[in-house]
Amino acid sequence: MAIIPIKCPICGASVNVDSAADATICPACGKPFIVKEAIISSYVGASAPAAPAAPAAPAPAEKPPAAEGDGAPVIATSFEQVKESAIPKEFIPVNYNRTIYHKHRDFNLDEDVLVKYAGDELVVQIPDNVKSIGYCAFSGNDTVEEIIVPETVKKIGYCAFSSCQNLKKVTIRGTLTSIGERAFLNCTALTHITIPDTVNRLGEYIFENCRSLEEIKLPEGLLEIGDRAFKDCRNIKSIRLPNNLRHIGKCLFENCKSLTEIELPNGLTEVPEAAFKDFVSLRSIAIPSSVESIAESAFEGCVCLEHIDLHEGLKSIGSRAFAGCSGLDGVTVPSTVETIGARAFLGCTHLTYADLPDTLQSVGVRVFDNCVSLSRVNIPPCAIRISDGAFKGFTKLRSIVIPEGVQSIGDNAFEGCTHLETVTIPKSARFIGSDAFKGCKRLKTVNGAAFNTDKLIETFSETTYLDNALRSKGLCRYCGGEFAGVLTRKCKNCGRVKDY
Predict the structure, then answer these.
(1) Among 129, 141, 322, 391, which residue is least crowded by beta carbons within 10 Å?
(2) Which of the following CATH numbers is that of domain 384-500: 3.10.450, 2.60.40, 3.80.10, 1.10.3470?
(3) For 260-302, how does the pLDDT look when each residue is reduced to its tens digit (9 = 90+)?
(4) pTM exceeds 0.85, yes or no
């Protein structure tokens, strides 16, 4: 029991009350009131109470021990604190701009870990004695709009604020070092967050689908960002990756439709899988010399990407790494690159040139599939096979040199290359597929290979080269048949009259 001096909420008279009582009667006006409500209304925003002139009972020599489980955490307030013995802790509210935003019973604490927030306030200031915000502590809270994290908090845990649909602003103060996976996942209204420089790691999915987030400043001490950290942040317009960053996760900026540029830090060793996939506003990118590999689908679907700067030191380009980059105008692959994965430049429909080094050791199938604007491309010596349809429909391609070492050219490999004029085929090519050069209407010169009549027709149908080759042999230019007759020369196979 504690005797507390307060003011009567009805008449304003000074009254000493027993804090353990539920209700009492004012001796001045004779009106009853609830004790707890009177205590709170007396001290929120008020000065500390004066000691009673004549206490109703002698004060105990020392504060009686609190019952087990009775110790609510002490929260700093903007009013002058009264002595611990004057007001039981469970009655002390938090004053924030003279408005009560939460009471102690809204917080479920396990020592210094905030386990769960059960309140319904719009603005929540986390208690000063909390050191860690635990698993899903605020997850799914649809009321909170602003959260203030004090300097005492060192860690924000897994899913701590996930799916807080109305959360708009988070202010983090002090020496926070870690923000866990999915901490702000699906916070679709979040527009502003301050991350202290002491944070060195951002977990996976941390801001995924924060589609209202427009700008975020990352701390300079950041070393690692987890997979999908900013995936589907569709309105984020500006972000700078700090120079100390050493690792970025998969699908990091996938579907960030409003970002127009990004600078990768020196020291980064890999552009991971799908890191910038569907980054549709990206126009140019420079890959630092520290990067050794560009992983699968790293820039797939960056339809506005016009220029990539690849530096010496890069060793591998993964499958579909630049697939669908339809705005890309050209690419020069550095001499340090050893492997290029299958369909790495699939669908780069505006790609006009591709310069590949002779040092390449492995090239995947159909690297330039559907790059119909290519007018210049060199096939590296490491290529053993040109796959079926690899250059089909490349209408701008004018010449091609197939290097010694290539053993097979697939079916329809160069079909429909209507501007192709010159081809060099190596002696190592033991197999050439059907219709490999069909429809290459302007093809006139084929170097380095000899063909019998049947193979000529099978490989070079609908080309000027075939027409000229059959004429030189005195054969029908339509089917390769021999002519018969003296006055009227007709083909023995198709019956057409000789017209040359």
Answers:
(1) 129
(2) 3.80.10
(3) 778 899 889 999 999 999 888 888 889 999 999 999 999 999 9
(4) no
**Yes or no: domain 101-259 corresponds to CATH 3.40.50.2300:** no
Q: What is the arithmetic mean of pLDDT over 350-373? A: 91
Condensed to tens digits (0 to 9), the pLDDT of residues 410-456 reads 999 999 999 999 999 999 999 999 999 999 999 999 998 888 888 99
The ranges of the chain annotated as CATH 3.80.10.10 are 101-259, 273-382
pLDDT greater than 80 at residue 159:
yes
- For the chain, first and last CA: distance in Å? 122
> What crossing angle do the helices spanning 464-472 and 453-460 adopt, rounded to 10°?
160
Q: How far is CA 365 from CA 10, 253, 374, 388, 415, in A?
A: 87, 28, 17, 9, 17
